[in-house]
From TrEMBL:
Protein name from the UniProt record: Secreted protein
Organism superkingdom: Bacteria
Taxonomic lineage: Bacteria, Pseudomonadati, Verrucomicrobiota, Verrucomicrobiia, Verrucomicrobiales
Signal peptide: 1-20
Keywords: Signal
Amino acid sequence: MIFSRIAPLFLAALAPLAAADFPVVRRSDRVLTVAQVKTFWVNRLRAQALPTKATSPDPENEDTRRVEAHRRRVLMEEIRAGQHDLAARLVCLSHNVEAWSRLGDESKSEASEQRLIFLREHVARLVTLEAQREAAVKLGEAADRTVAMSEEIQRLKGLLARQDEACG
């Protein structure tokens, strides 16, 4: 497969999947849509058991339970609102490459793989552009600080020169 040869180039493209704790879609020969991946995630998150309640009044355990329940609710709301559509699309395409292969339709498997590669390249470019933007902002801030320091140095030199003239 093409992807296995260029996989190292796309590590940055996996950021959307690493950003949230999504349930893993199991391997199968069923071809999925993005909507089905999102529905699977929401249903699986809803069905996952929370940490058990302590029999003794342990506030730390109850806090952990409350935080986990809140994290899941927020993640489900974000999935429903479309904030993780890119991650769902990556999972969908990755899953479908194997599903089409299992079904014996290599042309559809290769087409899905090409779309997956294109999407990962696009995400990698976006990640690179965002890193460059952040670096430019930091560089601009550093340049502003340098200008401000240069102006302060000139101001202090002027003060020293006036004091030397007054003393001299």
